[in-house]
């Protein structure tokens, strides 16, 4: 292992947090997620088409999962349009990126930024600009391995748009993927292409998130329903997020939607998708369940009743 592939140090170990540093959520035993042996999940958030909501999804899923007590690392692998830091309100704290680690300019703990609100959430940007990007698949893999060693339960990689080198590097360390699409034919076609590429690269655990859904347009037959999109792609559905101006408000504030005290429909939908992703089925919209909880009603709102 070369100097540049060995990252980290004891100061990175989030399991060393003092109890007071964590939130009440984390220190309450019922919600505490054990730091003992666990399998970390590396999930790439991808789409093919740009501007469909990958970064929004990464920020909100990451924040939701962190609030559920897991240690979460978010990796901003979108070099050209790096904005995960903005969505999380951490832009002033990005001093180093993974490129600096690869070049031997800093250690992993210097580039890994811990969220102030949820200390079990961390952000790592791969590069600040396209000119300074010569990351290889191997670099990416080593980097994620080092992040894994720090004891994170979930590592979410925000993938760049397109299917070129940035995409190939971003998917390299992942075992799972969330494909984000909008209910538009161009985005769906790109999502389908990406699904094929993921499979060709050995990523078979893939879930679909349909974003910017407009029930009013679906009703008028001006937009494909979530069910139609899901059936076209044949990928299991993780969630459906409505079009919501609050997404823009939260982006500008640097506060992911799921942090709002009064959750909006989109915030509930992201939380729901996060719970589904971690496998807490009891909280989820269950299409087959005869009970109609709030979440099922929400699902019906998007999918229509059976
Ligand atoms: P990507 O990372 O795929 O390029 P972003 O997450 O940056 O996409 O989202 C692109 C734009 O769409 C942003 O301006 C964001 O605020 C907006 N957006 C994303 N999801 C929604 C939504 N559900 N409702 C309204 N606007 C959204
Ligand atoms: Mg993005």
TrEMBL record:
Molecular-function GO terms, alphabetical: ATP binding; ATP hydrolysis activity
Gene: minD
The keyword ATP-binding is annotated on this UniProt entry: yes
Residues annotated to bind ATP: 49-56
Residues making up the signal peptide according to the UniProt record: none
GO biological process: cell division; negative regulation of cell division
Cited InterPro entries: CobQ/CobB/MinD/ParA_Nub-bd_dom, MinD, MinD_FleN, P-loop_NTPase, ParA/MinD_ATPase
Gene3D superfamilies in the cross-refs: P-loop containing nucleotide triphosphate hydrolases
General function of this protein: ATPase required for the correct placement of the division site.
Presence of keyword Cell division: yes
Keywords: ATP-binding, Cell cycle, Cell division, Chloroplast, Nucleotide-binding, Plastid, Septation
This protein's name: Putative septum site-determining protein MinD
Chain residue ranges for the region called Disordered: 1-21
């Amino acid at each position: 292992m070369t100097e540049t592939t060995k990252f980290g140090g004891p100061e990175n170990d989030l399991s060393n947090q003092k109890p007071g540093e964590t939130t009440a959520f984390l220190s309450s035993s019922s919600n505490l997620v054990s730091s003992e042996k666990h399998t970390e999940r590396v999930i790439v958030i991808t789409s093919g088409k740009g501007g469909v909501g990958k970064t929004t999804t990464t920020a909100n899923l990451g924040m939701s999962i962190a609030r559920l007590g897991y240690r979460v690392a978010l990796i901003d692998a979108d070099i050209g349009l790096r904005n995960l830091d903005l969505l999380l309100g951490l832009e002033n704290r990005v001093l180093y990126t993974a490129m600096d680690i690869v070049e031997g300019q800093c250690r992993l703990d210097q580039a890994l930024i811990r969220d102030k609100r949820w200390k079990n959430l961390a952000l790592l940007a791969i590069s600040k600009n396209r000119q300074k990007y010569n990351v290889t698949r191997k670099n990416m893999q080593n980097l994620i391995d080092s992040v894994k060693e720090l004891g994170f339960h979930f590592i979410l990689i925000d993938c760049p748009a397109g299917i070129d080198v940035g995409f190939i590097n971003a998917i390299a360390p992942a075992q799972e993927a969330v494909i984000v699409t909008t209910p538009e034919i161009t985005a769906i076609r790109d999502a389908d292409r990406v699904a094929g590429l993921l499979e060709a690269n050995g990523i078979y655990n893939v879930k679909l998130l349909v974003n910017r859904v407009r029930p009013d347009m679906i009703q008028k037959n001006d937009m494909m329903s979530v069910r139609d999109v899901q059936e076209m792609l044949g990928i299991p559905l993780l969630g459906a997020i409505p079009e919501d101006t609050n997404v823009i408000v939260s982006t500008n504030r640097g506060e992911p939607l799921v942090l709002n005290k009064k959750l909006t429909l989109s915030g509930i939908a992201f939380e729901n998708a996060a719970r589904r992703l971690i496998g807490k089925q009891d909280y989820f919209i269950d299409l087959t369940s005869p009970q109609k909880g709030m979440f099922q009603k929400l699902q019906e709102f998007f999918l229509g009743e059976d």
